[in-house]
Design goal:
Elements (H helix, E strand, L loop, with lengths): L3 H11 L14 H10 L2 E4 L8 H8 L3 E4 L5 H4 L7 E2 L5 H12 L3 H18 L2 H20 L1
Parallel strand pairs: 1-2, 2-3
Length: about 150
């Protein structure tokens, strides 16, 4: 069994990236939020997912997200509206997409960031979800009583 962190640390050293890559390990919720707020881009290059909470967290901080359309990711990330979709197992495509995002105008970046946060507030905010659930329950109760 290959341990991921030592493998990646060795790989970053071989690629002369050791001074550019930091392996943080566990971080607290507060540290995670601070790191997401500092990030320009969040990349989720998964092969399998359900609905990754880390993606929702990144989007909630206005981070521009690039993700593979696996599981429910494709229902959340809409290409060039609130993020960007990646081809799985294609590092060259991921690199090109990152360069594309980094070359966007400030105006386009602002529009995408705003839409990213709006997606989370409109669809994944806990208060919104609870209200939707209560509405659905009340509708069901009303139909049953008729």
């Amino acid at each position: 069994m290959v341990l991921i962190k030592p493998f990646l640390e060795e790989l970053s050293s071989k690629l002369s990236l050791k001074n550019k890559v930091i392996f943080l390990g566990f971080v607290s919720e507060l540290e995670k939020l601070e790191l997401l707020n500092l990030a320009d881009i969040y990349v989720l290059a998964s092969l399998r997912e359900g609905l990754p909470f880390s993606l929702l967290e990144a989007m909630s901080t206005d981070c521009i997200c690039l993700a593979t359309p696996v599981g429910d990711v494709g229902r959340v990330v809409v290409e060039k509206q609130n993020g960007f979709l990646l081809e799985p197992m294609n590092p060259e495509f991921i690199a090109r997409k990152m360069m594309e995002v980094l070359s966007l105008s400030d105006e386009n970046i602002t529009l995408i960031r705003n839409q990213t946060r709006k997606t989370i507030l409109d669809n994944y905010d806990f208060k919104v979800i609870v209200k939707q659930m209560i509405g659905a329950i009340l509708d069901d109760m009303q139909q049953i009583s008729q």
